[in-house]
């Protein structure tokens, strides 16, 4: 990532100024290269450079290409932007070049313009020079002299001094390679075939078969060096001394015997940044590109360490700046990571100053008005000393707001610069410069590839830093909504401590990805809150997580934290302005009970000057009152059986004057205070899990317990054991102890294990993906330094909550009821003491038909308990909290429940419907909602949102009201109500539709099917007008299952059934039981190639011709077929036996006798054909077939897989046949044998179920076999609201 202003400016469309575009572009790359340009912008390295270019300081630079246009064939070395004005010198045009996506200025003749354009910075060559400074090498050939333009492949043509001869000049890199310099004498390269190369150069063969001296040496491993060590070596390189100079050499994988800088052997491998893998007297060093090792530190290394040239290392705040590996860039110009005299790695001054590609104007010179940002800066001076303010480098954020750290043009130092001329010229350019000066934008912060993720991420996520004050920078991690980020709510989340990272919420609780135990990978969170909202996780205050203080001072308090959080929130909205209109919710847990109300109150105060759409705040197990937390903890312990009766009675008798209910346990003194202290010592240090009373502690003592220790000094009643005599003497109360001591001392198991998150966040690849600078320290889930220095100011949040509610900002407080750290009794009593009007008493709220907790509603506030949840309710009761927060941000818990007052007035649902209809006044086309999935957008009249009564209805009442609404009002309800719009517009809501036993317009069915319905039930449905004309308005469905059992015989129903069959080409399950089968219906069925289950039982007018047509194609795919009681006769049975294939597994031919002739039914020939063509049958029903004989029974017994058969009332079969041994598991012979005979068969066939009641009625291909009457072929159905 690049933090310099020029680089970031290039990622935006260039703005036309008085300075020509080609003059601006010529300074962006080194003198022998030009920037790669598109139609509007300069190509940056973030977009990946083309193959014929390379990345230099964030810009794609390439050698000057040739012009493609034959009429403009003379190329210059000037890049241009064709879509801007003034982009080329006079006499030239901006044309495409031989390089892909590259535009340069081209001329039609070789003019002075084209010649001069090749001389970048410095004009024409002097008399002593031959080539311009941009391409300084003119190869000399003893036989030919200088290279002429005719032989010039890689270079530029220039006029040789003042003659008419054009010679070829080439750059250093073309001749010797990247990073190398050619030795020159007298303006031309040294011919090492005749002359000896100087020290530091070696003789090299070039591509033109000439020998020149290149400033590159052969490394100790035989490979060629790549660059000077002064410029910094890359990963996979090491610095070697070659011919008295230091060069970067590639490291072989085979190299072994890696030694520490002091010559000693490393003790073990380590990971840079982990912090704890090496011993105290060691540090982790990158000794090669393949491993990092623990090496010993020299004593007093920072005090006595000097660089190899005798100078002191670069220091900040009187402390030398160390670095992880040789060649790592240091935060100040002219310094690089080098080995010191004691073998450690520090930032030392380079022997050769680095070349700055962006030379700035001198800070003492006047700034020309025509210069363009960022090339005209003014330095900032200190108010106190009047001296120019310095900084350490591009990664330094210590400059005041509006200033950026840039290299000085006259000294090696970095200064804080600001461009004052741009303010006068354009406010827009000023905003652009300020944004770029910080080196951060939403695009720069985007996480491109998060390590350890093995699932598809369908949302954008960002990580970066927000300046909260002059010296404090807060790290944030932002995950966009997976649904619709442009309209979904926005949540800012804070964890507590104080001193704990909000990324605990991201990676442990409600984030889209959760850390695995290996500390390297992430798994998908099914109950991520960003499925319905966008969430920003802010690490606060500075010193927590990756948030930092540039001056090292992390001491803070409640007011300072809230002020910096508010500034960070504003900075975030400036970086993501598109979210300013989204509904905003501030949420947190634990000591977030202080963070969130104080921040929300500041936002309320600042709404007039900084407008954001603040809607609500939420606290989870919030620490809201110090005295209540102490007092209720004792009562909570007694209520959960942790205090015996003797102790409780003693407290009541000796300390509370016989009435403990009204006793203030925080005010007791003497031996009473000691008793309370003993109770606390057991609660917090007795081996119980304070976060969850019924959850076990981590058994391993070496697990990370930092979060628990932070909590004990934060929200837990902080007391250390004092001597009883001292307590009695000083007459101190429990509250005095809390405020005067540093916190409980914990013994036993640490209870919480956060090593997975800690290891993941400290992974080098993760830090890189999150854009974390290398010089920031190790990440931990909680900061002990912040906690121990944090100064609490507020012990009661009541004034803040009252202020927020008064500002019409909704408040939600939820508490896990088995948390001891911030127990629900504290929250419950706190809310009750606010004095708000109660609108709903304590009542259960449910999730998945189970009581999930209890809710109490007040004016402007909702209090929830979460049954069985501990301190981290979103983590340990994820489904319930997902539901509760989703309802909260969708304002389900948040309004006055008028439905209760309506119920008390005994108003009918019709009256409620009238109120709703009156409150919804949008004119809309109902058909647009159903016809075009995804095109229906939610709108709500601003003046009438408060009358959206449908938001107040419980589900059961909603269904009753929906039955009373017209189609127009039903659609408007979905359009105005966020809660039901999300349901109505989600494709999953329309997958399974049940219109059974009701009258439905055919056009309504068509519109609904177009929303992606796959399962449709029309059992007993009466379809009425209007019926869509499929010829005029063709439509196609995704139906796979259709149950049209007992569909009415009206022409409308038959016409709509035909439309459904025509438009559904992937049907697999169809039931037309009891329907009228016409030739048209049979024809449509014959066109479906995917049928596997077909129920044609009890159909009217089903004849052999219809069957032959239906089974013409699907006979090869159907596996279950039911034509029972459809009176198809012998001919129809023979059609089935002939058309069906070996795929047929279950068949019901019961009741096949023709209605015209009772003797016309299936016979032995039909069964013989069936056995021949369908050998895989395992269930066959042939009841009521009097023409069958023993032959059919014997043929069926030859089927190898046959398990179930029904011969009820088949009087032509000898009953003794049933006594023969067979492989059947089920046999039905109703109406043939007496009870004694049935029992005799059962005795002879013990493994066969004879006349089992479950098989009395065939289930073959039937959509709703008993007892699953609410399911279609095993798919659960739900009723659809009546529409009128």
UniProtKB/TrEMBL annotation:
The lineage of its organism: Eukaryota, Metazoa, Ecdysozoa, Nematoda, Chromadorea. GO terms for molecular function: serine-type carboxypeptidase activity. It is an enzyme of class 3 (hydrolase). Keywords: Carboxypeptidase, Hydrolase, Protease, Signal. It comes from Pristionchus pacificus. Belongs to the peptidase S10 family. The gene is WBGene00112327. This is Carboxypeptidase. InterPro entries: AB_hydrolase_fold, Cys_repeat_1, F-box-like_dom_sf, F-box_dom, LRR_dom_sf, Lustrin_cystein, Peptidase_S10, Ser_caboxypep_his_AS. SMART domains: FBOX, WR1.
């Amino acid at each position: 990532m690049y933090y310099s202003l020029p680089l970031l400016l290039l990622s935006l469309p260039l703005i036309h100024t008085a300075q020509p575009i080609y003059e601006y572009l010529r300074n962006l790359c080194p003198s022998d290269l030009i920037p790669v340009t598109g139609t509007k912008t300069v190509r940056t390295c973030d977009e990946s450079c083309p193959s014929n270019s390379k990345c230099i300081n964030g810009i794609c630079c390439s050698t000057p290409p040739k012009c493609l246009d034959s009429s403009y064939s003379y190329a210059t070395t000037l890049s241009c932007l064709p879509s801007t004005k003034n982009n080329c010198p006079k006499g030239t045009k901006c044309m495409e070049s031989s390089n892909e996506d590259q535009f340069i200025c081209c001329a039609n003749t070789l003019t002075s313009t084209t010649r001069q354009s090749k001389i970048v910075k410095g004009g024409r060559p002097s008399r002593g020079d031959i080539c311009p400074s941009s391409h300084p090498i003119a190869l000399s050939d003893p036989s030919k002299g200088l290279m002429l333009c005719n032989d010039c492949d890689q270079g530029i043509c220039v006029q040789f001094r003042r003659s008419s001869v054009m010679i070829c000049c080439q750059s250093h890199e073309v001749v010797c390679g990247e990073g190398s310099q050619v030795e020159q004498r007298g303006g031309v390269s040294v011919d090492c075939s005749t002359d000896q190369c100087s020290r530091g150069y070696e003789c090299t063969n070039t591509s033109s078969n000439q020998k020149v001296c290149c400033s590159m040496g052969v490394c100790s491993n035989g490979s060629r060096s790549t660059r000077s060590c002064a410029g910094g070596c890359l990963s996979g390189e090491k610095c070697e001394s070659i011919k008295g100079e230091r060069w970067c050499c590639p490291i072989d994988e085979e190299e072994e015997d890696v030694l520490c800088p002091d010559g000693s052997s490393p003790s073990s491998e380590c990971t840079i940044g982990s912090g704890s893998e090496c011993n105290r007297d060691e540090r982790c060093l990158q000794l090669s590109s393949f491993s990092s090792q623990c090496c010993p530190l020299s004593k007093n290394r920072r005090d006595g360490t000097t660089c190899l040239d005798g100078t002191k290392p670069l220091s900040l705040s009187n402390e030398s700046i160390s670095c992880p590996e040789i060649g790592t860039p240091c935060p100040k110009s002219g310094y690089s990571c080098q080995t010191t005299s004691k073998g450690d790695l520090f930032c030392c001054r380079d022997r050769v100053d680095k070349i700055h590609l962006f030379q700035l104007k001198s800070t003492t010179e006047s700034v020309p008005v025509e210069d363009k940002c960022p090339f005209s800066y003014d330095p900032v001076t200190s108010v106190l000393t009047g001296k120019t303010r310095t900084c350490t480098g591009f990664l330094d954020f210590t400059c005041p707001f509006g200033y950026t750290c840039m290299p000085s043009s006259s000294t090696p130092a970095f200064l804080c610069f600001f461009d004052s001329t741009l303010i006068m010229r354009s406010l827009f350019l000023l905003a652009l410069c300020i944004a770029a000066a910080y080196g951060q934008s939403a695009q720069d912060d985007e996480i491109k590839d998060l390590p350890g993720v093995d699932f598809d991420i369908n949302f954008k996520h960002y990580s970066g830093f927000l300046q909260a004050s002059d010296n404090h920078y807060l790290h944030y991690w932002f995950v966009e909504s997976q649904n619709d980020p442009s309209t979904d709510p926005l949540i800012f989340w804070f964890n507590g401590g104080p001193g704990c990272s909000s990324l605990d919420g991201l990676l442990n609780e409600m984030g889209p990805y959760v850390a695995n135990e290996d500390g390297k990978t992430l798994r998908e969170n099914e109950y991520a809150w960003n499925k319905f909202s966008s969430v920003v996780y802010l690490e606060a205050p500075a010193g927590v997580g990756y948030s930092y203080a540039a001056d090292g001072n992390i001491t803070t308090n409640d007011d300072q934290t809230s002020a910096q959080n508010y500034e960070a929130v504003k900075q975030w909205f400036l970086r993501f302005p598109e979210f300013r209109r989204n509904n905003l919710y501030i949420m947190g847990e634990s000591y977030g009970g202080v963070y969130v109300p104080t921040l929300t109150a500041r936002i309320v105060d600042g709404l007039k000057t900084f407008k954001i759409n603040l809607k609500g705040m939420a606290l989870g197990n919030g620490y809201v009152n110090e005295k209540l937390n102490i007092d209720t903890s004792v009562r909570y312990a007694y209520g959960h059986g942790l205090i015996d009766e003797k102790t409780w009675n003693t407290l009541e008798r000796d300390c509370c004057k016989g009435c403990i209910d009204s006793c203030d346990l925080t005010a007791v003194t003497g031996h009473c205070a000691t008793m309370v202290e003993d109770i606390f010592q057991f609660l917090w240090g007795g081996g119980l899990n304070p976060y969850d009373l019924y959850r076990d502690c981590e058994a391993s003592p070496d697990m990370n317990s930092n979060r628990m220790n932070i909590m004990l000094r934060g929200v837990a009643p902080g007391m250390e054991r004092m001597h009883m005599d001292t307590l009695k003497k000083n007459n101190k109360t429990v509250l005095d102890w809390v405020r005067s001591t540093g916190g409980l001392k914990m013994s036993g198991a640490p209870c919480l294990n956060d090593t997975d998150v800690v290891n993941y966040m400290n992974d080098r690849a993760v830090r890189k993906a999150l854009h974390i600078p290398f010089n920031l320290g190790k990440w931990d889930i909680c900061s002990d330094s912040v906690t121990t220095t944090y100064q609490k100011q507020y012990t009661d949040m009541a004034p803040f909550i009252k202020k927020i509610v008064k500002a019409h900002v909704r408040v939600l407080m939820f508490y896990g009821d088995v948390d001891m750290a911030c127990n629900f009794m504290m929250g419950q009593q706190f809310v009750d003491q606010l004095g708000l009007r109660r609108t709903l008493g304590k009542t259960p709220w449910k999730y998945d038909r189970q009581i999930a907790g209890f809710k109490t509603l007040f004016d402007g506030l909702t209090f929830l308990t979460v049954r069985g949840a501990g301190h981290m309710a979103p983590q340990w009761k994820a489904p319930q909290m997902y539901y509760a927060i989703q309802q909260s941000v969708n304002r389900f818990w948040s309004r006055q429940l008028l439905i209760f007052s309506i119920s008390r007035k005994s108003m009918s649902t019709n009256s409620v419907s009238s109120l709703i209809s009156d409150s919804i006044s949008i004119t809309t086309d109902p058909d647009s909602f159903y016809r075009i999935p995804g095109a229906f957008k939610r709108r709500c009249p601003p003046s009438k949102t408060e009358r959206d009564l449908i938001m107040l209805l419980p589900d059961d009442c909603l269904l009753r009201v929906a039955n009373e609404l017209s189609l127009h009002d039903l659609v408007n309800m979905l359009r105005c109500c966020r809660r039901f719009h999300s349901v109505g517009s989600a494709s999953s809501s329309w997958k399974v539709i049940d219109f059974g036993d009701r009258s439905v317009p055919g056009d309504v069915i068509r519109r609904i099917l177009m929303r992606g319905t796959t399962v449709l039930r029309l059992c007993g449905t009466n379809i009425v007008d209007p019926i869509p004309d499929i010829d005029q308005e063709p439509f196609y469905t995704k139906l796979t299952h259709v149950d049209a059992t007992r569909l009415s015989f009206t022409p409308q129903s038959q016409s709509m059934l035909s439309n459904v069959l025509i438009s559904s080409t992937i049907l697999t399950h169809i039931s037309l039981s009891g329907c009228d089968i016409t030739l048209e219906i049979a024809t449509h069925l014959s066109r479906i190639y995917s049928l596997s289950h077909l129920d044609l039982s009890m159909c009217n007018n089903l004849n052999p011709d219809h069957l032959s047509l239906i089974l013409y194609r699907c006979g090869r795919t159907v596996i279950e077929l039911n034509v029972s009681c459809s009176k198809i006769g012998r001919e129809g049975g023979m059609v089935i036996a002939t058309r069906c294939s070996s795929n047929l597994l279950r068949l019901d031919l019961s009741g096949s006798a023709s209605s015209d002739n009772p003797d016309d039914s299936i016979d032995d020939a039909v069964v013989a054909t069936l056995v021949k063509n369908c050998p895989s049958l395992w269930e066959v029903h042939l009841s009521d077939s009097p023409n069958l004989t023993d032959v059919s029974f014997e043929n069926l017994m030859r089927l190898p897989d046959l398990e179930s058969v029904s011969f009820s009332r088949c009087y032509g079969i000898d009953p003794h046949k049933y006594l023969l041994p067979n492989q059947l598991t089920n046999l039905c012979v109703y109406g043939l044998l007496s009870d004694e005979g049935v029992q005799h068969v059962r005795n002879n066939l013990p493994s066969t179920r004879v006349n089992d009641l479950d098989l009395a009625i065939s289930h073959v291909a039937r959509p709703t076999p008993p007892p699953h009457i609410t399911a279609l072929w095993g798919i659960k159905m739900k009723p659809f609201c009546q529409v009128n």
